[in-house]
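Case study B.
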Amino acid sequence: MKQLLRWANPSVAGKVAARLRGVCLLGAILFGATGLVWGFFFAPADYLQGESVRIIYLHVPAATLSTLLYGTMAVASLGFLVLRLPSFALVCRAVAPTGLLMTALCLVTGSLWGKLSWGAWWVWDARLTSLLVLFFIYIGYFALHSLFVDGARARLATSVFVLVGAVDLPIVKFSVEWWYSLHQPASLLRKGGSSVHPDLLQPLLLCLAGATFFAAWASFTAFDNISMRTRLQRLLHPLS
Amino acid sequence: MTFFSLWNSVLERVVSLPALVVVAYALFLCALLLFSLWLKREGTTLRRELQRALSERERG
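Model:
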């Protein structure tokens, strides 16, 4: 517990984040570039979907990270509410912009893929609708945070909001099983292993690794920026 | 393989794919690049402002 509390110190966490940032950026470029070039130029076309399947290398990493990052926010919010350490709320704020970006990219690439596969840009399908709700939850998080002048109140309100919003995560995940859906069922993380052909799976895993490293780099950078802004505000307005 | 033959084969591959696939890749990469630049720029601005505030405080 003592070790955990040491890591929860914003200055210690900031130093660790600064060290890990370079590794994460390198990983993002190496894995991401290899996976995307492999997927775009060399991976085979799907027997049913043809060339449009290449959007999988963008859509699946974005979709996975949109929920994974929100999950991280929910865990950090729970940590903040239980332990009352501001670092947890700081992690939540640092992760949120990348989560919003990934959710937006998932919706856009999904829409383009939908037009090619289903002939429609958008359908009010359970998976699509629950992900759109997640997008609005991310927007709501930023909107709620901007409402408060007092940092402590903002941290408390947004942590509760994020935890309530986490109800959407299992709905996103299981929507394709609970309701009749145009969206295909889980093909990567499912019982009995992945159903994706290895020729498509290998570049997909590289893209997933690249996107994860990118999200980590972006979150660490945002963490650093928030820490600097907090220090700057304390210097400029020491009494507030 | 020369640079131009590589460039030609890249372009041939791009035009052989459905336009929406190319649009998806372009949008995705542009979004990641712009987001990274925004984060870096914000960091640079904040670092500069922080240094200015610290030096002003030292000067009293």
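Chain B has a mean pLDDT of 90. The remaining cases will be described in the next quarterly update.
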